[in-house]
Amino acid sequence: MQLAKSIVLVGFMGAGKSSIGRCIQRLAGLTRIDTDELATMKLGMPISEIFLKHGESRFREVETEVLRELELRRPSIVVTGGGTVLRNKNVDLLRQLGTVVWLDADDEILFERATRKSGRPLLEVENPRASFKALLAARRPLYEEVAEIRIDTTKLTHDEVAEAILKRIEELALQK
Ligand code: S3P
After folding, report:
1. At residue 57, does pLDDT exceed 90?
2. How many whole angstroms from 119 Cα to the centroid of ligand 1?
3. What is the pTM of this model?
4. Which residue lies with its CA nearest to atom 11 of ligand 1?
5. Where are the domains of the chain?
6. By C-alpha distance, which of 31, 170, 40, 157 is closest to 101?
7. Which of 45, 47, 119, 163 is the most exposed place for a label (fewest CB within 10 A)?
8. Distance in angstroms (rounded) separating the CA atoms of residues 165 and 150
């Protein structure tokens, strides 16, 4: 598939950004870039350790550096971390990178998916459900603001979500 622009995936932890990024990479033959992976490589440690040793604010700085330094030579699939939208400058950078797609799902599904595996320091707290609720409420408007396309992933497989994204992008291109 010939894409005019990159696809940028945003959404809460557990929305399936990484897995769906891999599906799109495979289906559309795109290069995949994952900002969490780049932040991890930059500081040479997993995200939970970055939070522990340097704090969330340092992680957020590195997230911005990673986005600024991205040079996409051809349309690619860019997977972001759930909190990337928190900084205004990131929002601008995301929009410059390509078509921003918000992966959303019902709260309960998101919570279940986000807490299934470890490595998400913001949910490894005394009351993960309360944190989840507060973070999600604060962030949903930010995803909505930045994204051109929203996909409800609640009842879809990863491949179905990937196909839905590619279809919506084609439709958008036809409208322009
Ligand atoms: C975060 C989400 C994580 C990772 C970090 C912070 C967040 O990425 O960037 O733990 O603030 O929501 P995923 O959305 O891929 O879990």
Report:
1. yes
2. 9
3. 0.97
4. 83
5. 6-169
6. 170
7. 119
8. 9
% of the chain residues with pLDDT over 70: 99
The pLDDT of 29-49, averaged and rounded, is 97
Classify the phi-psi angles of 127: left when phi > 0, otherwise alpha if psi is within -120 to 50, otherwise beta: beta
Residue type, 9: L
Distance from Cα 175 to the centre of ligand 1, integer Å:
33
Dihedral sign of CA atoms 84, 85, 88, 94 in order: positive
Q: Would the pLDDT of 59 be above 80?
A: yes
Q: State yes or no: pLDDT of 176 exceeds 80.
A: no
Q: How confident is the model over 52-74, as a mean pLDDT? A: 96
The confidence score (pLDDT) of residue 174 equals 87
Residue tagged 């590195």 (tokens): 62
171 CA distance to ligand 1 middle (Å):
30
Instruction: Find out whether 47 and 121 touch, Cβ atoms under 8 Å.
Output: yes
Q: What is the CATH number of domain 6-169?
A: 3.40.50.300
Atom of ligand 1 nearest to the CA of 17: 15
Q: What is the 3 state secondary structure string of 46-104? A: CHHHHHHHHCHHHHHHHHHHHHHHCCCCCCEEEECCCCHHHCHHHHHHHHHHEEEEEEE
